[in-house]
Specification:
This protein is mostly helical and 114 residues long. It is 66% helix and 0% strand. The chain contains six helices and no strands. Helix 1 crosses helix 3, helix 1 packs across helix 4 and helix 1 runs antiparallel to helix 6.
């Protein structure tokens, strides 16, 4: 295997990638339960979320960063056989609900890579 997780085109830290994807998933996502973050990890993630700030819909940089993270997440899922080319938002939510543990493992690896 070439690499465990493909790096995005832009230089994004693992914690930033995790924060971006968790924002996409939302606070009610079941993935939070599977992450089992300790207090230190919660503080680090909260800090990273704060650093991301308010999303600017006009910012091409923010949009590209988000796309990079989502593409990497999809590639991770495809490489492990649980993503099968779904494209609608509702399919993505179903994908996450059906594979919550795998998504949590990906986020955990991102956070550990700093």
């Amino acid at each position: 295997m070439e690499t465990l997780i493909k790096t995005t085109g832009s230089k994004i830290s693992g914690t930033t990638k995790a924060a971006i994807l968790l924002c996409e998933l939302g606070a009610a996502s079941p993935v939070w339960k599977y992450l089992k973050l300790n207090q230190s990890e919660k503080r680090i993630l909260a800090h990273q979320l704060k650093m991301l700030g308010t999303y600017d819909y006009e910012s091409k940089v923010q949009a590209q960063r988000e796309v990079d993270v989502l593409e990497e997440a999809l590639e991770y899922g495809a490489a492990r056989g649980f993503y099968k080319g779904r494209t609608k938002a509702s399919d993505s939510q179903t994908l996450i609900k059906e594979n919550t543990d795998a998504v949590a493992k990906m986020l955990r690896k991102w956070m550990e890579s700093k």
